[in-house]
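Schema walkthrough. Field components (list of strings):
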Amino acid sequence: MKNDLRARNHPSWWAFLVHRLSGLALSLFLPFHFWALGQAFQGEARLDTLLRWTEQPLVKFAEVLLIVLLAAHLSGGLRLLALEFLPWRGWQKSLLAWAAGLALAAGLAFALAL
Amino acid sequence: MNMLQVSVWRGAAAGEYRTYEVPRYESQSVLDVVTYIQRSIDPTLSYRFACRVGMCGACAMTVNGVARWTCRTHVAKVAEGNAIQIAPLANLPLVKDLVADMREFFDKWARARGQFVPSATRKDAFARVAADSRARAAVEAGIECIGCGVCYASCDVVSWNADYLGPAALNRAWTLVNDERDGARAERLRAVAGDAGCHACHTHLACSERCPKKIEPTRSIAGLKRAVAMAALRGEL
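Field assembly_structure (string):
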């Protein structure tokens, strides 16, 4: 017999899913990021064209999502390190709440500063 | 009388769910429900239990999709409306109906060197283990395992990697690593250090979430990861 989502429906499994999916999404974004930076080699005008393109509202929104993904992956990773390397205590769910809170706060801070 | 609709897995791997109507009582356990079906409706239903009081670990099943000890699970706690679904434990081969084959589960305890290896003889004095020592506290946190297999059935890593030793076997190994009377620390750390050992754990915490004895195997596995890393740095592995 195999488990379905009912067995997986607990906070730490959802945290795992967010960590895994954000990691995958970031690794897909990374080549585009390097390509964008590489445009500077083609001259100032090329880079400026690209930077103007990123001023569009939809791209800005995607940028906020990207920040949330990055922050979620970072705080999720710190959560795992704290769980595995610090003395064990009953703080699994608090750690998770902190990680989620940090990710959302980072996204919000970025969105408001735009 | 208020009747409970109970959907029970029948047959082996190629079986199906069959629905039974069971009278609902106050303070009824899921094991009571299964026993009622077997004794009053269909005597061919196979299931496993022994102590009925949460000590032996024999009666674990999947109840509404979640692995649980059925003798200590109240119907009132898990029923969705008036319905309940009962299946055998996941991640284990199926013998028949609600009986999962536990051989692999216990073989992995042996593979994780779950046996105590004495470092003294009967002629030596009793070991004096300080009750408040850090190692004894670590043993205390994991020692009450009843071997029910709920953690093993709930673990995604077990479903992904058939060789993974699993939370219960690794928890057992951790209690022995912290047992100062034990004489096989290095061998045990070697046994749990491979691809199928403690480092395969993804810290989903499903085992800790589901353990009916409130043990946290993730804690033990994290301890093993650190102990293995330290032993490797010291050149002991």
